[in-house]
Amino acid sequence: MVLKYCNLFYAVTSANIPKSQTSHPYSSFHAAARCISGGPIYITDTPGFHNLQLINSMTAPTVNSTTRILRPNSIAKCIEQGVYTAYEEERFLKIGTYHTGSSADYGASILGVFNVSERALAELVPLREFVGVKPGQEYVVRAYPSEEVSPSMGLDDDEFPLVDLRLEEKGWGILIAVPVQSFILRANTTTAASAHEVDDGNKTHIAILGLLHKMTGAAAVVGTPSMQLQANGRLEISTTVKALGVLGIYIS
Questions:
Q1: For residue 145, is the peptide bond before it cis, meaning its omega torsion is within 30 degrees of 0?
Q2: Which of 95, 96, 92, 83 is nearest to 116 (CA)?
Q3: Could you tell me the pTM of the whole model?
Q4: Model pLDDT, residue 189
């Protein structure tokens, strides 16, 4: 059963399969796998039969009137915990990859989740299954297509960090974990307090989610986000993206 499962992983994500259509029953399933694969995306639709909503979820326009694919800069792999999962176990097929900005200080962990069973499934996805997550760092997880965002969580939390996910037959979802930074925001002050000086209840937690309404919107971030606490208590946030869209910022 290991061979069968690995063949299914290859069939879903392989960048060497030449065809990808946007107007058939498995079009979004296949498109999601291509988006996280790290490989190219080829579309071979019949002329006039295009799912523009699906195409727009994979791409974004630029200031030069061109269209960019939002592709992670790492190749996706089946996560270690799922390599030896038998098809009969009725578990999600999970494909993980990692997208970095201009430096190693910022990275988004992308987990594609696919229901390859013949019925609806629900599963608690642990944070440790996300590629590249580190102890001592807090994360929020954004889900696509629901656009739901989890509370801040980390591998060091006392409560086991989990993401609840339910998928129908032939269903899929993309979970993106992005790092959270914490600040003490004080109005009209000339000194910026360290986030370690007060309890967590007084901190403001912020994360860059990437472009919203996109399958892999975090892959649009090409620069390492900068967050600078100003002397007047305001926070200046800047980042660089490679395409146009709605930039999501988590604030809690």
A1: yes
A2: 92
A3: 0.85
A4: 42
User: What DSSP string describes the chain?
Assistant: -HHHHHHHHHHHH-TT-----SSSTTHHHHHHHHHHHSS-----PPTT---HHHHHHHEEE-TTS-EEE---SS--EE-GGGTT--GGG---EEEEEEEE-SSTT-EEEEEEEE--SSS-EEEEEEGGGSTT--TT-EEEEEEETT--BPPPEETT-SSPPEEEEEE-TT-EEEEEEEE-EEE---TT-SSPPPTTSS-GGG-EEEEEEEETTSTTGGGGB-S--EEEE-TTS-EEEE--BSS-S-EEEEE-
Cα distance between residue 74 and residue 130, in whole Å: 14
Cα–Cα dist 166/147, whole Å: 14
Categorise residue 202: left if φ over 0, alpha if ψ from -120 to 50, beta otherwise: alpha
pLDDT of residue 97: 95
Chain length of the chain: 252
Q: What span, in angstroms and rounded, lies between the C-alpha atoms of 27 and 21?
A: 6
Cα separations in angstroms, 177 against 40, 79, 94, 199, 214 = 23, 15, 14, 24, 15
β-sheet bridge partners, residue 251: 206
What pLDDT score does 196 carry?
A: 47
Residue 230: per-residue pLDDT: 80
Tell me the CA distances in angstroms from 133 to 29, 52, 106, 203, one per residue in order.
25, 34, 11, 22
Report mean pLDDT in 10-residue bins for the chain, 252 residues: 44 50 81 90 83 92 93 87 73 92 79 92 93 93 95 86 91 96 66 49 86 95 85 85 95 90
